[in-house]
Specification:
- By secondary structure, the chain is α+β, with helices and mostly antiparallel strands.
- The chain has a single domain, classed as Gcn5-related N-acetyltransferase (GNAT) (Aminopeptidase, 3-Layer(aba) Sandwich).
- It is built from 4 helices and 7 strands, in the order E-H-H-E-E-E-H-E-H-E-E.
- Strands 1-2-3-4-5-7-6 form a 7-stranded mixed sheet.
- A hairpin with a 5-residue loop joins strand 2 and strand 3.
- InterPro entries: AcTrfase_RimI/Ard1 (IPR006464), Acyl_CoA_acyltransferase (IPR016181), Ard1-like (IPR045047), GNAT_dom (IPR000182).
- One of its GO terms (cellular component) is NatA complex.
- Keywords: Acyltransferase, Transferase.
- One of its GO terms (molecular function) is protein-N-terminal-alanine acetyltransferase activity.
């Protein structure tokens, strides 16, 4: 994580974000959708920048839906993976959503067969909530994962996800 800075995305970053998206996923979000999400909630769109080269090496997109957080996408450039950048991006977004916006939980979907991504989220306190059969356009199942806001001290009540 040396020389990596986490910051809010700028309009001029979009081409680099799209490049990371395309190298990271077989099925990508269209650039227009990425820009629309950025326009609707810019605080939830963070990038990781190598301060030496000024190159973007990762991003995370988060939004607020029905008063709860939702991670839309997270990716790191191949040559920068397993260096803590994804963890730093996720932590920064969680801080924004949990502390500033006081969301009750953050949800995300991950491909059922993406074991590495699921392990990444398990290590960071996310838990499986339910299976979403044939969620992705290619027919692949997803797992809905959820993390409760650790700063809200309530009795141990279940998380009720109302988005699906």
């Amino acid at each position: 994580m040396e020389n990596i800075k986490i910051r809010k995305m700028r309009d001029s970053d979009i081409l680099q974000v799209i490049k990371i998206e395309e190298e990271s996923f077989e099925y990508t979000y269209p650039p227009l959708l990425i820009m629309q999400v950025f326009s609707s909630f810019p605080e939830g769109f963070l990038v990781a920048e190598d301060e030496n080269t000024k190159k973007l090496v990762g991003y995370i997109i988060g939004i607020i839906e029905w008063g709860h957080g939702h991670i839309v996408s997270i990716a790191t450039s191949k040559e920068y993976r397993n260096k803590g950048i994804g963890t730093a991006l996720l932590k920064k977004l969680e801080d924004t959503l949990f502390k500033k916006y006081n969301v009750g939980y953050i949800a995300l979907e991950v491909r059922f067969n993406n074991v590495d991504a699921r392990k990444f989220y398990y290590k960071r306190g996310y838990m499986d909530k339910r299976l979403l059969p044939r969620y992705y356009e290619d027919g692949t199942d997803a797992i809905l994962m959820v993390k409760k806001n650790p700063y809200i001290k309530l009795p141990d009540t279940p998380v009720i996800v109302t988005m699906w």
